[in-house]
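TA notes. Do not distribute before section.
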Amino acid sequence: MTLAWISIAALVIAVGLSCTTTINVGILSLTLALLVGVYLGGMSPAAVLEGFPTDLLITLVGVTLLFSIAESNGTLARVTARAVRLCRGQVGLLPVMFFVLGLVIATIGAGATPTSALLAPPAMAVASRAGIPLLVMAVMAGNGALAGTLSPFAPTGIVANGVMARIGLGGVEWQTYAYNAFAHALVGIGGFLVLGGLRLFTRREGAAAGERREGVPVDSAEPDAGEMTTPHWLTLAGIVALIAGVAIFGVNVGMMALVVSTLLILLRAVDEGEAIHGMPWGVILMVTGVSVLIALLQETKGMDLFTAGLARISTPESIAPIVAFGTGVISVYSSTSGVVLPAFLPMAPELAERVGGLPPLPIAWSMNIGASLVDLSSLSTVGALFLAGAPPGSDTRSLFNGLLVWGLSMSVVGAALCWILFR
């Protein structure tokens, strides 16, 4: 029990210092995980490092390399200009467009993480070039992807619906999807408005002349579309192949992105050194290092401390917001589909019985919504992908903190929303 509390304290220290200092939180988290695990937990360094997220690393490396190629050879610049023109110069429509794209791609089977891996780099590039605050774009595009994450065809939806079926709550797959999609649409639109999104509709084709945002100059003129040459068409074809492979054929997004990137390099569609140099290595280290500390927290049973008190503090009126808040807080630092939903959803029937014989479905839906709403946190994979997609010259520290605050606040918003929906 003591070790569990110490591991929680290590996470609190890492998150606190990440918000108040310039140290890379990944380096700090990795160090704390090794110190706590080896010297207090009696684990070997190899055992601690078993928590290293190899799959996430491959996803981040593969996707960021592919879109670094697209950025460095000018493909993204040309696609960005054409996206702005597609919206007829209405800058405010661009985040809306990426929300819809995210919702559609995630719903048809890609799920939130692959969809975010696909959309984050171009969405953030479009935001940078069109003068849209990166946090606004991340909130809209990220919530679009998360809105489709509980589709019966998506990985997280398959996990959630499978667990619910095993505990006698099957047959409501599309209702589960609809509640989650509604929640993300609501907070996405709300965030867009609160963060000043309406002002974007008063601008056309970029920001005012001479304005600088996050140190990146923004021109008032319409972005130059430029001519699409063979390298650009090859890169665009590779991106389309990646989307098709992931969304239609279920290919691993990281593996597919690495294959496509390698082919583009072999076809001389880009300068390999320039593309590799443009990858966000600091962000990749940040995300993977934090994941090791989270894995240690799970190993030491620190996560169990969050769940033990739920039944003791719940009433029929408060159970929905309490479980939404509890799953939300844990999901900020953990895997929604791999840890939170498999651990919490089986508790729904028993919790419903203990607090007065309530229907268990609203409790299960509250868990799904609460766990999913926070997944745009910079400590979660989806938020990390948008952070990694920030173009060179962006203030990633500010974006990291903004996404972290957003994710944490969603635990409260999710609780309030579930109280309204399921009371």
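Switch to the second chain here.
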Amino acid sequence: MSTGSVNRDFMADGLALGLERAQLERISQTIGLKERRVAAAGITALDLCEDAARRLLDEMGIDASAIDAVIFVTQTPDHSQPNNSSLLHGRLGLSKSTAAFDLAMGCSGWAYGLHQAALLCAHGGAARVLLCAGDTLSRLTNPLDRAIDPLFGDAGSATLIEKTGHAPAMHFNLEADGSGAKSICVPAGGARLPTSPLTKKESKDAEGNTHHAENLQMNGSDVFNFTLREVPGSVGSVLKMTGWTPVQADALILHQANRFMVSTIGKKCGFTPEKTPMDSVETFGNQSSASIPCTLIHALGAPLQEKTLKVVACGYGVGLSWGSVALELGPIVIAPLQSFPKL
């Protein structure tokens, strides 16, 4: 797991923009904003995921030639063409027989990617699938949009899924609601609305936040209501598949959108705060598709290296889409969290 290389402090950034300290402290305590990792200029999600993948393969003692497929989950690819998975394929020197494809997904992307990796192992003849998930969403936010910009950090992750022949089944629930797609959106920059001088023209909303059409825009209340409406049922669905109760499960790993949202969803799902890690966002920011693997390492890294845990994870966001998985995880090899480039 690689995070951005520059620390950005929420309080310092807000004070620099002339916001009141009391207001900043109230926001920080409520939604858990303290600092985040932002990629340095010229560093992309591809760079972050390549670093994470190389360190993971080295830690596991696996040669790149043993990888049968690579899946890259991102919404901030290096180019519209070619895809990031093909670029990573070339950087790692993977075999021509290694499949490579991207999933253009956000915060639910790791769960969707894990589902695809599991299918490849179960039915696609693959023995090892490399799942990379990461974004540099800080590049899409406007620094004068205080409702959105402080939330997002940059990160890349790598997860290796291996077919052993005796691993317990993983249980998934994947859903979407495209009618709410505009709740999280970058309006310009695609084929529908190409970039132009007009799409760079800034405007202010009713709260005084500034953005333009090429910036990430989000309706916070719509997203919050969507998560409370859909996520508990999704988590309940995979719990039912396994036969676990929240008491029997060891942890609920939720996408780290903000502390208040994670806490609220955890309670609605029947999990205690002790089983619902919620402090990754305070250290790294909202890391999009890399959020769940980051939290697994940050909160459960030590026990996961020693024993098997019953883990439920759920990602939710852009699309609107959401995905849950329940699995028995561990003991596993972990490449520690590390800033990029290496210090």
